[in-house]
Amino acid sequence: MDNSIKVVFPGTFDPITNGHMDIIKRADKIFDGVIVGVARNTGKTPLFSYEERLAITREAIEACRSLSGVKVYGIEGLLVDFAEEHGARVIIRGLRAVSDFEYELQMAFMNRDLNENIEIMYMMPYIKYSFLSSSIVRNVFLSGGRIEKFVPRVVIRHLEDKVKKLKGE
Ligand code: COA
């Protein structure tokens, strides 16, 4: 019997931040396999396309040597189906502040209703990332602020390219 526990860490990753990386590293230390799931449809209007978010997230993980076992795939349909297809029994979510709780509770109950066999677990990021979000990073960058401390290096290059493209350069 296979007793290994694989987990899925899902998100929009528009773009991936050091807060996400922190949770992935914590999960990787505990579980037997971590699969990062990049959601195609999230009800958001992302800056980066699904294909770009998938490629950037993969690049950020590949650039981190300690995460060599972590895989990145796209979620095309339901998260719980994605978890099952990849043999993961657990979904990991980051809880940054009390304000995350209500939304997470709503998603947890819906996911449990959709598939009772998948457990959802929460991890707290390092306190210095507890205020981080992808939209705050995008906002600071697009307003000319420095974001080196908050995102993997590859993300900055992609944000710069995106801005050039949007300006038609
Ligand atoms: N560090 C930094 N930021 C974090 C974070 C962390 N540890 N944890 C969450 N966040 C931020 C994200 O950056 C994001 O910020 P933004 O809103 O400014 O972009 C925000 O918290 C929440 O986003 P995310 O964690 O990406 O979740 P989401 O709400 O965008 O997407 C999915 C949630 C992908 C899990 C959900 O849409 C999903 O499951 N989709 C598949 C379809 C499905 O099954 N739907 C039914 C679900 S009940």
Figure out the total of helices: 6
- Poorly predicted runs of 5 or more residues: none
Secondary-structure element order, N to C = EHEHEHEHEHH
Q: What distance separates the N and C termini?
A: 56 Å
Note the main sheet.
5 strands, parallel
Fraction of helical residues: 40-55%
Explain what the structure shows.
- With 169 residues, the chain is α/β, with parallel strands linked by helices.
- Helix content is 44%, strand content 17%.
- It has helices at residues 18-30, 50-62, 79-85, 98-114, 134-142, 153-167; strands spanning 6-11, 33-39, 71-75, 90-94, 119-123.
- It has a 5-stranded parallel beta sheet, sandwiched between helices.
- Helix 2 (50-62) packs antiparallel against helix 6 (153-167).
- The radius of gyration is 16 Å and the shape is globular.
- Residues 10-12, 14, 17, 19-20, 23, 39, 42, 44, 75, 78-79, 94, 96, 107, 110-111, 125, 129, 132-135 line the site of coenzyme A (COA).
Keywords, separated by commas or semicolons:
5-stranded parallel beta sheet, 169 residues, binds coenzyme A, 44% helix, alpha/beta, 17% strand, 6 helices, single chain
Write the layout of secondary structure elements.
Blueprint: E1 6-11, H1 18-30, E2 33-39, H2 50-62, E3 71-75, H3 79-85, E4 90-94, H4 98-114, E5 119-123, H5 134-142, H6 153-167
Parallel strand pairs: 1-2, 1-4, 2-3, 4-5
Bound molecules: coenzyme A.
Coenzyme A binds at residues 10-12, 14, 17, 19-20, 23, 39, 42, 44, 75, 78-79, 94, 96, 107, 110-111, 125, 129, 132-135.
